[in-house]
Structures are given as structure tokens and as C-alpha cells.
Design a protein that fits this description.
heterodimer; A: alpha+beta; Ubiquitin-like (UB roll); 5-stranded mixed sheet; two-stranded antiparallel sheet; 2 helices; globular; B: alpha/beta; Rossmann fold; Oxidized Rhodanese, domain 1; 2 domains; 8-stranded mixed sheet; 5-stranded parallel sheet; 17 helices; about 15% strand; ATP binding (chain B); Ubiquitin-activating_enz (chain B); ATP-binding (chain B); transferase (chain B); ubiquitin-like modifier activating enzyme activity (chain B)
Chain lengths: ~100, ~400
């Protein structure tokens, strides 16, 4: 089964710049584990202690998986998974660079 | 879901105002009623920067009666690529004053209120109180959580936007009718994990794309038409030229707006969000040199390797002579360690000292006991050692 995973700009260094990659799995947790085997390191940016990191949101199609079943959420062929971490925008505060 | 208008209509529009706003008045959804509501509206814009610049100009042009501006910063040349409310002659002026002057030129009917103090937990309620709605154009997590918490605790809606390189996001947070920012992101990322625009950059026009969405939503809420962006997150991709929206649900466990809130007053947001991680702070303690000390080391001919941990495109803009580039990411994934000499001192630097402190923590952990980093980074070098180099 192929599921499209949309990668945010700040994690594209793990995917050679690709905005979307294909991976497989029957749950979100499996999908991310497989994603980490093909793109080593990306798993740790999404998952910590077997849970989704709290500042990273993951959407299955247009639903936030925190309200579906977290990493146990079933995924299926044709689904789109979007990863959306919190980003600071606006004008930079030099004190925080 | 449509919501009732936030603001009661003003008694009347003057003849001049009818002429000025005629293109609004002939839209049935706006009409005289909507324009009178805008005239009575009080909107606070947090930050006259990337998002605040277009937001303020369009809110002013639209005829919002009172605009508050919070900004304690001054205009820098590097702002002008995107902060279109400021101009060349405004460099070094307070942004709030520069923004006020541009607003007066755009629409003299607008009353502008300046708040030039730094927004903090001590003054947020007092500043927010008189306003109907808040537009958040802030750039850092501490202020963003502060704006969210103050808005929720005061029961006010706020329109949020965020930008990074070619990506933008926007939503309306209004706890009374939907989720708040903490429902979307319960916790900020740890310091050093997520880059800011100063590190990652932002396409100037992206500010207009997202800032104008924020104004669009503000106007709809004030005058009470259309479908507000409550409970939805708009995601804009300027490279693909696509807009998508995902659902944002109110989290029943939200510590601020959930069933059993644990946050009932404003907290210490600097401590909540951190600026540099504890590990980086510990590593930098006693292992930080100044740009002048680095210059002395170079002039003395000390044996050390100077490592720039910024990104390749930053290295291309300006660099300290003799430095080699190993981006911070290679320290975090361990690749950098094999590239570094074991028998020479390692000196790290970045743009202003944050990223190099994070990389230093990795080095110290790997046994590079005499490694140091340069406080103030390449910007400090330019200021103290070689002002002929371009700052960015």
C-alpha cells in the first residue's frame, strides 16, 4: 500500500528536498517507522517515546490524528498524511536567533 | 458556521466616508451597515513587521476606526524586503511611529494608538482590553502563547498567521466558538529544534499573502458576514500555489480553554518557551569567547579550527575569514564529529550565538572539552571587528 506523506519545509533535509514521499503501513506508527528506514532520522523528529511530539501535528487527510488515534490511527492506500510542525514566523526577534 | 458581528454599527458615515468606501458599500454583504461596524471597530495588531505591515495598511484602508500597534523595535534595512509599511527614510525610526505615519497617509480617518512597550504578562490585559479583536503578527513562540492566553482569558477573538520561506498558515482562534492556539499546538518546540525566519528566511510577498488573509478574516468577524476561519487551519504553499485547509478541533483537555483549565492567569512565557536549551546554556557557560577574543586568537596564530554552523546560503552571504562550514544539523545527527580534528581546539560560531551554543552542547557531550563558541556570532564579528562586512 502506498500512502503519500507531505513533508514540511524544515524536515525536507531528510528527504533530499522532496515535498512528498511515498511510504507504507497499516497504522500511522508503522508508516512513520517505514518512513524512517527509507529516510533515516526523520522518525525521531516526529515521534518521541513512542508518541507523537507535541509540537508536531499530523493530519490524516484533513483530520488531526490526535483526535483519531494518534500513532495507532489506521491508514490506507490513497490516504494523504500531512506533517505540520509549529513554526515561528513574522519578523525575527534578534534576541532569539 | 457564521457568527454574529463583533461590533455595533457607528451612527453614520460622513459624505467623505461614503465616497471613500463606495466600493465596499455597493457589495451587498458589506453595505452601509458593515462599513459602519468597521468604523466603530477597534483592532490591535501585535507587531508592525512582516505580517503586521500589510495587515495594518489593509485594515486602515478598509476603514477600521481604531488601530492599535504594539511594537518596541526600530526599522532595520533588512526589514524593507517585506515590511512594506516602512520605507527607506524610516530606517532606525521606531516601527510603531513609522507605521502610524503610513496609516495616516493611507486613511486619515483612522485613529492610531501606539503601544511602544514590550508586550509581557504584566501589561497584556491592560493593552488588549479596549480592543474588539487582535491580529497576531508575532515572530516567536513566547509572544504567540502570551497573545493566545491573554485573548482567551479576556474572551476576545484573534486572527493568527505564521510564515516560513514559502509556507504560510492562518487561523482564527476564539475559545468561545472554537479552538485556541494551545488546542492546535499544546506545547512550543524545544529551543533549537525549529528555525526562525531569521535562520530560514521568508519570501517577502508571502507576508502579504498571509497578512491579507488575516485582514480578510478580521473584517468578516467585525462586520459579521461570511464563514469565519474558526476551527480550520489554512495552509498556503507559494511554490505549488495551493491553499488547503485542515480541521482544528477544540481540545477538551486544553489546559487553557478545555473542560478543566489549569492555566487561569498569564504565566512566564520566556520560561515556558525557552530561548536556548538548558544543554546549550550549560555548554556555553565558561566556553564562550567574544568576537574580539576570536580576532586575537587569529592574530596570535593559535592552532584551532573555526567552524561556521550556519546554512550554506548564509555562508555565501558573509563569513569570518578562515572558517569552514559544517551546518548545525550535522552536529545533531552526529556526522560533524568525524569531520573535526581531535588534536586541535574547535571554535564554533553561527549568526548570533544560539545555534553555535546548541552545536557546542553536542561537542562537549562527545568529549571535545576545550571547544568554545563565539557569543554574538558573525553579526558580533561584523559589529566589533569588521564593520565593512554586510550584516543580514
Amino acid at each position: 500500500m502506498a500512502i503519500e506523506v507531505r513533508i514540511p519545509t524544515i524536515l525536507r533535509n531528510y528527504t533530499d528536498g522532496a515535498k512528498a514521499v511515498q511510504s507504507t503501513g497499516s497504522t500511522l506508527g508503522e508508516l512513520f517507522a517505514n518512513l524512517d528506514s527509507s529516510h533515516p532520522g526523520i522518525g525521531g523528529r516526529l515521534v518521541e517515546d513512542a508518541k507523537l511530539r507535541r509540537f508536531v501535528n499530523v493530519y490524516l487527510n484533513d483530520e488531526d490524528v490526535r483526535f483519531l488515534g494518534g500513532l495507532d490511527t489506521p491508514v490506507a492506500d490513497g490516504d494523504t498524511v500531512t506533517v505540520l510542525p509549529a513554526v515561528a514566523g513574522g519578523a525575527p526577534d534578534a534576541a532569539r536567533v | 458556521m457564521s457568527l454574529p458581528p463583533l461590533v455595533e454599527p457607528a451612527a453614520e458615515l460622513t459624505v467623505d466616508e461614503v465616497r471613500r468606501y463606495s466600493r465596499h458599500l455597493i457589495i451587498p454583504d458589506v453595505g452601509m451597515d458593515g462599513q459602519k461596524r468597521l468604523k466603530n471597530a477597534k483592532v490591535l495588531v501585535v507587531g508592525a513587521g512582516g505580517l503586521g505591515s500589510p495587515a495594518l495598511l489593509y485594515l486602515a484602508a478598509a476603514g477600521v476606526g481604531t488601530l492599535g500597534i504594539i511594537d518596541f523595535d526600530v526599522v532595520d534595512e533588512s526589514n524593507l524586503q517585506r515590511q512594506i509599511i516602512h520605507g527607506q527614510s524610516d530606517i532606525d525610526r521606531p516601527k510603531a511611529e513609522s507605521a502610524r505615519d503610513s496609516i495616516r497617509e493611507t486613511n486619515p480617518n483612522v485613529e492610531v494608538v501606539l503601544h511602544t512597550e514590550r508586550l509581557d504578562s504584566g501589561n497584556a490585559f491592560e493593552i488588549f482590553e479596549p480592543y474588539d479583536l487582535i491580529v497576531d503578527g508575532t515572530d516567536n513562540f513566547a509572544t504567540r502563547y502570551l497573545v493566545n492566553d491573554a485573548a482567551v482569558l479576556l474572551g476576545k477573538p484573534y486572527v493568527w498567521g505564521s510564515i516560513y520561506r514559502f509556507d504560510g498558515q492562518a487561523s482564527v482562534f476564539w475559545a468561545e466558538h472554537g479552538p485556541c492556539y494551545r488546542c492546535l499546538y499544546p506545547e512550543p518546540p524545544p529551543p533549537g529544534m525549529v528555525p526562525s525566519c531569521a535562520e530560514g528566511g521568508v519570501l517577502g510577498v508571502l507576508c502579504a499573502s498571509i497578512g491579507s488573509i488575516q485582514v480578510n478574516e478580521a473584517i468578516k468577524l467585525l462586520a459579521g458576514f461570511g464563514e469565519p476561519l474558526v476551527g480550520r487551519l489554512m495552509i498556503y504553499d507559494a511554490l505549488e500555489m495551493s491553499y488547503r485547509s485542515v480541521k482544528v478541533r477544540k481540545d477538551p483537555e486544553c489546559p487553557l480553554c478545555g473542560k478543566n483549565p489549569t492555566i487561569t492567569e498569564l504565566i512566564d512565557y520566556e520560561a515556558f518557551c525557552g530561548t536556548v536549551s538548558d544543554e546549550a546554556q550549560a555548554a556555553a557557560l565558561g566556553s564562550t569567547i567574544t568576537p574580539l577574543e576570536l580576532k586575537e586568537k587569529i592574530d596570535r596564530g593559535d592552532d584551532f579550527v573555526l567552524v561556521d554552523v550556519r546554512e550554506p546560503n548564509e555562508y555565501e552571504i558573509v563569513r569570518i575569514p578562515g572558517s569552514v562550514l559544517i551546518p548545525k544539523g550535522e552536529f545533531l545527527n552526529g556526522e560533524a564529529l568525524s569531520k573535526l580534528p581531535q588534536d586541535r581546539q574547535v571554535v564554533l560560531h553561527c549568526k548570533s550565538g544560539g545555534r553555535s551554543a546548541e552545536a557546542l552542547a553536542v561537542l562537549k557531550g562527545a568529549g571535545f572539552a576545550d571547544a568554545v563558541h563565539v557569543g554574538g556570532g558573525v553579526l558580533g564579528w561584523i559589529k566589533q571587528v569588521d564593520p565593512s562586512l554586510p550584516a543580514y
